[in-house]
Write a structure and sequence with these properties.
Strand order of the largest sheet: 14-17-18-13-12-19-20
CATH topology of the largest domain: Aldehyde Dehydrogenase, Chain A, domain 1
Structural class: alpha/beta
Helix content: 40-55%
Largest sheet: 7 strands, mixed
Shape: globular
CATH architecture of the largest domain: 3-Layer(aba) Sandwich
Number of domains: 2
Number of helices: 15
Mean pLDDT: 96
Protein backbone atom coordinates (compact mmCIF):
# COMPACT_ATOMS: atom_id res chain seq x y z
CA UNK A 1 0.00 0.00 0.00
CA UNK A 2 1.12 3.57 -0.64
CA UNK A 3 2.59 4.94 2.57
CA UNK A 4 1.80 8.54 3.49
CA UNK A 5 3.17 10.68 6.28
CA UNK A 6 1.27 12.85 8.69
CA UNK A 7 -0.66 15.68 7.04
CA UNK A 8 0.31 19.01 8.61
CA UNK A 9 -0.17 22.39 6.99
CA UNK A 10 -0.71 20.86 3.57
CA UNK A 11 2.53 18.83 3.69
CA UNK A 12 3.31 15.18 4.34
CA UNK A 13 5.54 14.90 7.40
CA UNK A 14 7.76 11.97 8.40
CA UNK A 15 8.83 11.08 11.94
CA UNK A 16 11.36 8.63 13.33
CA UNK A 17 8.81 6.67 15.36
CA UNK A 18 6.54 4.40 13.33
CA UNK A 19 3.22 2.67 13.92
CA UNK A 20 2.70 -0.74 12.32
CA UNK A 21 -0.68 -1.21 10.65
CA UNK A 22 -1.60 -4.87 10.20
CA UNK A 23 -4.45 -6.68 8.52
CA UNK A 24 -6.61 -8.19 11.31
CA UNK A 25 -7.55 -11.09 9.03
CA UNK A 26 -4.09 -12.48 8.22
CA UNK A 27 -1.88 -10.16 10.33
CA UNK A 28 0.06 -9.06 7.25
CA UNK A 29 2.00 -5.82 7.68
CA UNK A 30 0.21 -3.21 5.55
CA UNK A 31 2.23 -0.09 6.32
CA UNK A 32 4.38 1.71 8.81
CA UNK A 33 2.88 5.11 9.55
CA UNK A 34 4.74 7.96 11.26
CA UNK A 35 3.62 8.65 14.82
CA UNK A 36 3.19 12.23 15.95
CA UNK A 37 5.18 13.54 18.88
CA UNK A 38 5.05 16.81 20.78
CA UNK A 39 6.61 18.75 17.90
CA UNK A 40 4.09 17.48 15.34
CA UNK A 41 1.14 18.18 17.64
CA UNK A 42 2.34 21.76 18.13
CA UNK A 43 2.95 22.18 14.42
CA UNK A 44 -0.57 20.95 13.58
CA UNK A 45 -2.16 23.26 16.16
CA UNK A 46 -0.29 26.24 14.75
CA UNK A 47 -1.18 25.28 11.16
CA UNK A 48 -4.88 24.85 11.94
CA UNK A 49 -5.03 28.12 13.85
CA UNK A 50 -3.27 30.04 11.08
CA UNK A 51 -5.44 28.49 8.35
CA UNK A 52 -8.60 29.41 10.25
CA UNK A 53 -7.91 33.14 9.91
CA UNK A 54 -8.38 32.92 6.14
CA UNK A 55 -10.54 29.79 5.67
CA UNK A 56 -13.28 31.17 7.93
CA UNK A 57 -13.73 34.03 5.45
CA UNK A 58 -14.09 31.80 2.40
CA UNK A 59 -17.54 32.17 0.81
CA UNK A 60 -20.14 29.48 1.18
CA UNK A 61 -20.03 28.61 -2.53
CA UNK A 62 -16.28 27.97 -2.32
CA UNK A 63 -16.63 25.68 0.70
CA UNK A 64 -19.49 23.83 -1.00
CA UNK A 65 -17.47 23.47 -4.21
CA UNK A 66 -14.51 22.02 -2.30
CA UNK A 67 -16.71 19.40 -0.67
CA UNK A 68 -18.42 18.54 -3.96
CA UNK A 69 -15.04 18.03 -5.63
CA UNK A 70 -14.03 15.79 -2.73
CA UNK A 71 -17.28 13.81 -3.05
CA UNK A 72 -16.74 13.38 -6.79
CA UNK A 73 -13.19 12.12 -6.27
CA UNK A 74 -14.38 9.71 -3.59
CA UNK A 75 -17.05 8.39 -5.96
CA UNK A 76 -14.30 7.87 -8.55
CA UNK A 77 -11.95 6.15 -6.09
CA UNK A 78 -14.54 4.39 -3.90
CA UNK A 79 -13.32 0.86 -4.68
CA UNK A 80 -9.77 1.83 -3.76
CA UNK A 81 -11.04 3.23 -0.46
CA UNK A 82 -13.15 0.13 0.11
CA UNK A 83 -10.09 -2.05 -0.41
CA UNK A 84 -8.15 -0.03 2.18
CA UNK A 85 -11.03 -0.36 4.66
CA UNK A 86 -11.26 -4.12 4.05
CA UNK A 87 -7.53 -4.53 4.57
CA UNK A 88 -6.92 -2.43 7.68
CA UNK A 89 -10.29 -2.91 9.42
CA UNK A 90 -11.04 -6.45 8.14
CA UNK A 91 -14.49 -5.21 7.16
CA UNK A 92 -16.13 -7.55 4.61
CA UNK A 93 -16.08 -6.10 1.10
CA UNK A 94 -19.87 -5.63 0.89
CA UNK A 95 -19.82 -3.44 3.99
CA UNK A 96 -16.56 -1.67 3.09
CA UNK A 97 -17.91 -0.66 -0.31
CA UNK A 98 -21.19 0.46 1.25
CA UNK A 99 -19.23 2.62 3.68
CA UNK A 100 -17.34 4.30 0.84
CA UNK A 101 -20.61 4.97 -0.99
CA UNK A 102 -22.17 6.40 2.16
CA UNK A 103 -19.17 8.68 2.68
CA UNK A 104 -19.75 10.13 -0.80
CA UNK A 105 -23.25 11.07 0.31
CA UNK A 106 -22.02 12.45 3.64
CA UNK A 107 -19.63 14.83 1.87
CA UNK A 108 -22.36 15.77 -0.64
CA UNK A 109 -24.82 16.52 2.16
CA UNK A 110 -22.13 18.62 3.85
CA UNK A 111 -21.63 20.64 0.66
CA UNK A 112 -25.34 21.45 0.58
CA UNK A 113 -25.29 22.51 4.21
CA UNK A 114 -22.47 24.98 3.50
CA UNK A 115 -24.84 26.78 1.15
CA UNK A 116 -27.75 26.71 3.60
CA UNK A 117 -25.93 27.99 6.70
CA UNK A 118 -27.96 30.92 7.99
CA UNK A 119 -29.21 32.74 11.03
CA UNK A 120 -32.69 33.97 11.94
CA UNK A 121 -34.51 37.14 12.82
CA UNK A 122 -35.57 37.59 16.46
CA UNK A 123 -38.90 39.30 17.32
CA UNK A 124 -37.46 41.90 19.70
CA UNK A 125 -40.79 43.67 20.14
CA UNK A 126 -42.17 40.58 21.88
CA UNK A 127 -40.46 41.96 25.01
CA UNK A 128 -41.75 45.12 26.65
CA UNK A 129 -39.30 47.96 26.19
CA UNK A 130 -37.85 46.58 22.94
CA UNK A 131 -40.53 47.79 20.57
CA UNK A 132 -38.01 49.95 18.70
CA UNK A 133 -35.36 47.27 18.31
CA UNK A 134 -34.79 44.81 15.52
CA UNK A 135 -32.83 41.63 16.13
CA UNK A 136 -31.17 38.78 14.32
CA UNK A 137 -28.51 36.20 14.91
CA UNK A 138 -25.85 34.81 12.61
CA UNK A 139 -23.84 31.60 12.80
CA UNK A 140 -20.06 31.69 12.71
CA UNK A 141 -17.48 28.87 12.74
CA UNK A 142 -16.11 27.96 16.17
CA UNK A 143 -12.45 27.72 15.11
CA UNK A 144 -10.06 24.79 15.38
CA UNK A 145 -11.88 21.47 15.83
CA UNK A 146 -10.23 18.25 16.99
CA UNK A 147 -11.92 15.19 15.49
CA UNK A 148 -11.20 11.78 17.02
CA UNK A 149 -12.58 8.86 15.02
CA UNK A 150 -12.94 5.11 15.74
CA UNK A 151 -11.66 2.04 13.91
CA UNK A 152 -15.01 0.59 12.88
CA UNK A 153 -15.99 3.21 10.27
CA UNK A 154 -12.60 4.68 9.31
CA UNK A 155 -14.02 6.60 6.35
CA UNK A 156 -17.67 7.54 6.89
CA UNK A 157 -17.33 8.58 10.52
CA UNK A 158 -14.35 10.72 9.52
CA UNK A 159 -16.50 12.26 6.77
CA UNK A 160 -19.22 12.97 9.34
CA UNK A 161 -16.74 15.09 11.30
CA UNK A 162 -14.58 16.65 8.61
CA UNK A 163 -17.36 17.40 6.11
CA UNK A 164 -19.58 19.57 8.33
CA UNK A 165 -16.56 21.21 10.01
CA UNK A 166 -15.18 22.38 6.67
CA UNK A 167 -18.66 23.31 5.46
CA UNK A 168 -19.01 25.75 8.37
CA UNK A 169 -15.59 27.35 7.85
CA UNK A 170 -13.71 25.61 10.65
CA UNK A 171 -10.30 24.01 10.42
CA UNK A 172 -9.69 20.45 11.64
CA UNK A 173 -7.07 18.30 13.31
CA UNK A 174 -8.07 14.69 12.78
CA UNK A 175 -6.76 11.87 14.97
CA UNK A 176 -7.90 8.56 13.47
CA UNK A 177 -7.87 5.31 15.40
CA UNK A 178 -4.38 3.82 15.60
CA UNK A 179 -5.69 0.50 14.22
CA UNK A 180 -7.06 2.10 11.04
CA UNK A 181 -5.16 5.28 10.06
CA UNK A 182 -4.60 4.46 6.37
CA UNK A 183 -8.12 5.29 5.21
CA UNK A 184 -8.01 8.69 6.93
CA UNK A 185 -4.62 9.50 5.40
CA UNK A 186 -5.94 8.57 1.96
CA UNK A 187 -8.87 10.90 2.56
CA UNK A 188 -6.39 13.65 3.36
CA UNK A 189 -4.69 12.95 0.04
CA UNK A 190 -8.08 13.18 -1.67
CA UNK A 191 -8.86 16.55 -0.06
CA UNK A 192 -5.53 17.96 -1.22
CA UNK A 193 -6.39 16.82 -4.74
CA UNK A 194 -9.75 18.58 -4.36
CA UNK A 195 -8.02 21.87 -3.58
CA UNK A 196 -8.06 21.95 0.21
CA UNK A 197 -6.27 25.05 1.56
CA UNK A 198 -3.09 24.17 3.51
CA UNK A 199 -3.80 23.66 7.21
CA UNK A 200 -7.58 23.39 6.85
CA UNK A 201 -7.29 19.65 7.52
CA UNK A 202 -4.40 18.16 9.46
CA UNK A 203 -4.07 14.45 10.29
CA UNK A 204 -2.04 13.14 13.22
CA UNK A 205 -1.53 9.47 14.06
CA UNK A 206 -0.63 8.37 17.55
CA UNK A 207 -1.96 7.05 20.87
CA UNK A 208 -4.97 8.75 22.42
CA UNK A 209 -3.20 8.98 25.76
CA UNK A 210 -0.51 11.20 24.26
CA UNK A 211 -1.56 12.80 20.97
CA UNK A 212 -5.31 12.89 21.70
CA UNK A 213 -5.07 14.21 25.23
CA UNK A 214 -2.47 16.82 24.27
CA UNK A 215 -4.84 18.11 21.59
CA UNK A 216 -8.02 18.22 23.64
CA UNK A 217 -6.39 20.17 26.48
CA UNK A 218 -5.01 22.93 24.25
CA UNK A 219 -6.89 26.22 24.52
CA UNK A 220 -6.50 26.91 20.80
CA UNK A 221 -8.93 24.05 20.22
CA UNK A 222 -12.51 25.32 20.44
CA UNK A 223 -14.39 22.05 19.90
CA UNK A 224 -13.84 18.32 20.17
CA UNK A 225 -15.93 15.79 18.26
CA UNK A 226 -15.37 12.20 19.36
CA UNK A 227 -16.79 8.80 18.50
CA UNK A 228 -15.74 5.90 20.70
CA UNK A 229 -16.30 4.14 23.98
CA UNK A 230 -18.14 5.64 26.95
CA UNK A 231 -15.14 5.40 29.34
CA UNK A 232 -12.93 7.36 26.93
CA UNK A 233 -15.69 9.87 26.25
CA UNK A 234 -16.18 10.40 29.96
CA UNK A 235 -12.47 11.07 30.44
CA UNK A 236 -12.38 13.39 27.44
CA UNK A 237 -15.27 15.45 28.81
CA UNK A 238 -13.54 15.74 32.16
CA UNK A 239 -10.17 16.80 30.74
CA UNK A 240 -11.01 18.95 27.72
CA UNK A 241 -11.86 22.13 29.61
CA UNK A 242 -14.40 24.70 28.44
CA UNK A 243 -14.94 23.61 24.84
CA UNK A 244 -17.86 22.56 22.70
CA UNK A 245 -18.24 18.78 22.65
CA UNK A 246 -19.99 16.22 20.52
CA UNK A 247 -19.69 12.72 21.95
CA UNK A 248 -20.96 9.64 20.14
CA UNK A 249 -20.46 6.88 22.68
CA UNK A 250 -21.37 3.28 23.42
CA UNK A 251 -24.61 1.35 23.43
CA UNK A 252 -26.25 -2.02 23.89
CA UNK A 253 -28.94 -1.36 21.31
CA UNK A 254 -31.60 -3.84 20.36
CA UNK A 255 -35.00 -4.62 18.87
CA UNK A 256 -38.52 -5.34 20.03
CA UNK A 257 -40.63 -7.69 17.90
CA UNK A 258 -44.38 -7.53 18.62
CA UNK A 259 -46.79 -10.39 17.96
CA UNK A 260 -48.20 -8.60 14.88
CA UNK A 261 -44.77 -8.06 13.27
CA UNK A 262 -43.76 -9.20 9.80
CA UNK A 263 -41.57 -12.05 11.00
CA UNK A 264 -39.54 -12.44 7.80
CA UNK A 265 -38.79 -8.71 7.79
CA UNK A 266 -37.69 -8.87 11.43
CA UNK A 267 -35.52 -11.96 10.81
CA UNK A 268 -33.70 -10.48 7.83
CA UNK A 269 -33.06 -7.08 9.40
CA UNK A 270 -32.07 -8.38 12.84
CA UNK A 271 -29.66 -10.88 11.29
CA UNK A 272 -27.81 -8.07 9.51
CA UNK A 273 -28.09 -5.85 12.58
CA UNK A 274 -26.72 -8.56 14.83
CA UNK A 275 -23.76 -9.72 12.76
CA UNK A 276 -22.78 -7.03 10.25
CA UNK A 277 -19.08 -6.29 10.69
CA UNK A 278 -19.03 -8.90 13.47
CA UNK A 279 -21.15 -6.67 15.72
CA UNK A 280 -18.47 -3.95 15.86
CA UNK A 281 -21.04 -1.22 15.40
CA UNK A 282 -22.29 1.13 18.11
CA UNK A 283 -25.90 0.45 17.02
CA UNK A 284 -25.30 -3.30 16.88
CA UNK A 285 -28.59 -5.18 17.43
CA UNK A 286 -27.27 -6.89 20.55
CA UNK A 287 -30.60 -7.56 22.30
CA UNK A 288 -33.80 -8.94 20.79
CA UNK A 289 -37.06 -8.96 22.77
CA UNK A 290 -39.74 -10.98 20.99
CA UNK A 291 -43.32 -11.80 21.90
CA UNK A 292 -43.58 -15.23 23.54
CA UNK A 293 -45.92 -16.52 20.81
CA UNK A 294 -43.20 -16.00 18.17
CA UNK A 295 -40.08 -16.78 20.14
CA UNK A 296 -39.68 -20.46 19.26
CA UNK A 297 -40.22 -19.98 15.51
CA UNK A 298 -38.10 -16.82 15.30
CA UNK A 299 -35.25 -18.23 17.38
CA UNK A 300 -34.96 -21.46 15.42
CA UNK A 301 -34.76 -19.63 12.10
CA UNK A 302 -32.48 -16.87 13.43
CA UNK A 303 -30.01 -19.44 14.81
CA UNK A 304 -30.10 -21.43 11.57
CA UNK A 305 -29.29 -18.34 9.49
CA UNK A 306 -26.61 -17.12 11.90
CA UNK A 307 -24.84 -20.48 11.76
CA UNK A 308 -24.76 -20.32 7.94
CA UNK A 309 -23.05 -16.92 7.73
CA UNK A 310 -19.97 -17.28 5.55
CA UNK A 311 -16.61 -16.64 7.20
CA UNK A 312 -13.67 -15.67 5.02
CA UNK A 313 -11.27 -13.11 3.62
CA UNK A 314 -12.82 -9.63 3.87
CA UNK A 315 -11.73 -8.93 0.27
CA UNK A 316 -13.88 -11.83 -0.98
CA UNK A 317 -17.30 -10.39 -2.01
CA UNK A 318 -18.96 -13.57 -0.70
CA UNK A 319 -17.64 -13.11 2.85
CA UNK A 320 -20.28 -12.16 5.42
CA UNK A 321 -18.28 -12.41 8.63
CA UNK A 322 -14.70 -11.43 9.37
CA UNK A 323 -12.54 -11.26 12.50
CA UNK A 324 -12.72 -8.79 15.33
CA UNK A 325 -10.25 -5.92 15.21
CA UNK A 326 -7.76 -7.71 17.50
CA UNK A 327 -7.42 -10.74 19.74
CA UNK A 328 -7.97 -8.93 23.07
CA UNK A 329 -11.41 -7.84 21.82
CA UNK A 330 -12.27 -11.44 20.91
CA UNK A 331 -10.94 -12.79 24.23
CA UNK A 332 -13.10 -10.31 26.16
CA UNK A 333 -16.22 -11.24 24.18
CA UNK A 334 -15.54 -14.95 24.65
CA UNK A 335 -15.15 -14.47 28.41
CA UNK A 336 -18.53 -12.69 28.59
CA UNK A 337 -20.17 -15.58 26.73
CA UNK A 338 -18.67 -18.12 29.16
CA UNK A 339 -19.68 -16.00 32.13
CA UNK A 340 -23.28 -15.76 30.89
CA UNK A 341 -23.45 -19.54 30.41
CA UNK A 342 -22.08 -20.07 33.93
CA UNK A 343 -24.87 -17.78 35.18
CA UNK A 344 -27.60 -19.79 33.47
CA UNK A 345 -27.77 -18.52 29.89
CA UNK A 346 -28.25 -21.11 27.15
CA UNK A 347 -25.92 -21.13 24.15
CA UNK A 348 -27.83 -21.77 20.92
CA UNK A 349 -24.96 -21.40 18.45
CA UNK A 350 -21.39 -20.12 18.21
CA UNK A 351 -19.35 -19.19 21.24
CA UNK A 352 -16.04 -20.54 19.91
CA UNK A 353 -13.02 -18.35 19.30
CA UNK A 354 -9.99 -18.84 17.05
CA UNK A 355 -7.51 -16.01 17.49
CA UNK A 356 -9.46 -12.83 16.87
CA UNK A 357 -12.30 -14.62 15.07
CA UNK A 358 -15.45 -15.30 17.10
CA UNK A 359 -18.30 -17.40 15.76
CA UNK A 360 -21.74 -15.78 15.43
CA UNK A 361 -23.20 -16.37 18.88
CA UNK A 362 -26.82 -16.50 20.02
CA UNK A 363 -27.80 -16.82 23.69
CA UNK A 364 -31.17 -17.14 25.37
CA UNK A 365 -32.50 -17.55 28.92
CA UNK A 366 -30.53 -14.44 29.84
CA UNK A 367 -31.03 -12.03 32.73
CA UNK A 368 -30.77 -8.22 32.47
CA UNK A 369 -27.73 -7.97 34.74
CA UNK A 370 -25.60 -10.29 32.57
CA UNK A 371 -22.78 -8.46 30.74
CA UNK A 372 -23.96 -9.79 27.37
CA UNK A 373 -27.21 -7.92 28.02
CA UNK A 374 -26.36 -4.72 29.90
CA UNK A 375 -22.84 -3.95 28.64
CA UNK A 376 -21.68 -3.19 25.09
CA UNK A 377 -20.32 -6.43 23.61
CA UNK A 378 -19.02 -4.94 20.33
CA UNK A 379 -18.88 -8.49 19.00
CA UNK A 380 -21.07 -10.94 17.03
CA UNK A 381 -23.22 -11.75 20.07
CA UNK A 382 -27.03 -11.56 20.12
CA UNK A 383 -29.25 -12.37 23.09
CA UNK A 384 -32.92 -13.28 22.69
CA UNK A 385 -35.52 -12.77 25.41
CA UNK A 386 -39.33 -12.93 25.33
CA UNK A 387 -42.20 -10.86 26.70
CA UNK A 388 -45.90 -11.36 27.31
CA UNK A 389 -47.15 -7.84 26.55
CA UNK A 390 -45.72 -4.82 24.77
CA UNK A 391 -45.34 -2.69 27.88
CA UNK A 392 -43.17 -5.42 29.40
CA UNK A 393 -40.93 -5.33 26.33
CA UNK A 394 -40.34 -1.60 26.72
CA UNK A 395 -39.59 -2.04 30.43
CA UNK A 396 -37.14 -4.87 29.71
CA UNK A 397 -35.34 -2.84 27.08
CA UNK A 398 -35.00 0.22 29.32
CA UNK A 399 -33.94 -1.89 32.30
CA UNK A 400 -31.23 -3.66 30.29
CA UNK A 401 -29.90 -0.28 29.13
CA UNK A 402 -29.32 1.08 32.61
CA UNK A 403 -27.98 -1.91 34.59
CA UNK A 404 -24.42 -1.95 33.24
CA UNK A 405 -21.41 0.26 33.80
CA UNK A 406 -23.13 3.02 31.81
CA UNK A 407 -26.76 4.03 31.36
CA UNK A 408 -26.99 3.65 27.60
CA UNK A 409 -29.61 5.10 25.29
CA UNK A 410 -28.72 5.05 21.61
CA UNK A 411 -31.13 3.05 19.45
CA UNK A 412 -33.96 0.54 19.36
CA UNK A 413 -35.77 -1.06 16.46
CA UNK A 414 -39.47 -1.89 16.85
CA UNK A 415 -41.27 -4.33 14.57
CA UNK A 416 -45.04 -3.87 14.63
CA UNK A 417 -47.99 -3.09 12.34
CA UNK A 418 -49.86 -1.35 15.17
CA UNK A 419 -49.55 2.45 15.07
CA UNK A 420 -50.49 2.82 18.74
CA UNK A 421 -47.75 0.38 19.77
CA UNK A 422 -45.28 2.20 17.58
CA UNK A 423 -46.06 5.57 19.19
CA UNK A 424 -45.95 4.08 22.68
CA UNK A 425 -42.44 2.82 21.92
CA UNK A 426 -41.41 6.18 20.47
CA UNK A 427 -42.53 7.98 23.61
CA UNK A 428 -41.33 5.50 26.25
CA UNK A 429 -38.07 4.03 24.98
CA UNK A 430 -35.09 5.83 26.55
CA UNK A 431 -33.05 6.21 23.37
CA UNK A 432 -32.06 8.85 20.86
CA UNK A 433 -33.25 6.83 17.84
CA UNK A 434 -36.35 4.67 17.38
CA UNK A 435 -36.68 2.78 14.11
CA UNK A 436 -40.10 1.34 13.29
CA UNK A 437 -39.83 -1.89 11.29
CA UNK A 438 -36.04 -1.65 11.17
CA UNK A 439 -33.42 -3.08 13.46
CA UNK A 440 -31.38 -0.78 15.69
CA UNK A 441 -28.56 -0.98 13.14
CA UNK A 442 -29.91 1.60 10.74
CA UNK A 443 -28.60 5.03 9.84
CA UNK A 444 -29.32 7.43 7.01
CA UNK A 445 -26.43 9.85 6.92
CA UNK A 446 -28.47 13.06 6.75
CA UNK A 447 -30.61 12.30 9.81
CA UNK A 448 -29.93 13.61 13.34
CA UNK A 449 -27.97 10.79 14.93
CA UNK A 450 -26.91 10.47 18.55
CA UNK A 451 -27.81 9.07 21.94
CA UNK A 452 -29.31 10.15 25.22
CA UNK A 453 -28.10 9.54 28.77
CA UNK A 454 -24.55 8.14 28.70
CA UNK A 455 -24.62 7.26 25.01
CA UNK A 456 -23.46 10.74 24.11
CA UNK A 457 -23.91 14.49 23.74
CA UNK A 458 -25.00 16.38 20.64
CA UNK A 459 -26.03 15.09 17.25
CA UNK A 460 -24.32 14.14 14.01
CA UNK A 461 -25.66 14.24 10.46
CA UNK A 462 -24.30 17.16 8.39
CA UNK A 463 -27.06 19.69 9.13
CA UNK A 464 -27.10 18.93 12.84
CA UNK A 465 -23.32 18.61 13.17
CA UNK A 466 -22.95 21.98 11.47
CA UNK A 467 -25.18 23.53 14.13
CA UNK A 468 -22.91 22.02 16.79
CA UNK A 469 -19.85 23.36 14.95
CA UNK A 470 -20.98 26.99 14.80
CA UNK A 471 -21.47 29.73 17.37
CA UNK A 472 -24.53 31.97 17.50
CA UNK A 473 -23.81 35.70 17.49
CA UNK A 474 -26.77 37.86 18.47
CA UNK A 475 -27.20 41.29 16.87
CA UNK A 476 -29.66 43.96 18.03
CA UNK A 477 -30.40 47.27 16.29
CA UNK A 478 -31.92 50.10 18.32
CA UNK A 479 -33.90 52.33 15.96
Amino acid sequence: MVELGLLIGGEWVETAKKLEVRNPYNHELLAEVPQAGEAEVERALAAAQEAFTSYRKSPAHARAALLRRAAALLEKWKEEFARTIALEAAKPWRYALAEAERAVETLSFSAGEAERLHGETVPMDAARGSEHRRGLFIRQPVGVIVAISPFNFPLNLVAHKVGPALAAGNTVILKPASATPLTALKLGELFLEAGLPPGALNILVGPGRTVGERLIRDKRVRMVTFTGSAPVGERLKRESGIKKLTLELGSNSGAIIAEDADLEQALAKCLVGGFAYSGQVCIHTQRIYIHESLKERFTAEFVSRAARLRRGDPLDPATELGPLIDEPAAIKAESWIKEAISQGARLLCGGRREGNFLEPTVLTEVRPEMKVVCEETFAPIVVIDSFADFEEAIEKFNEGSRLGSYDYGLACGVFTRDLKRAWRAIEELEVGNVFINDSATFRADQMPYGGVKESGLGREGPHFALEEMTEIKMVSFSL
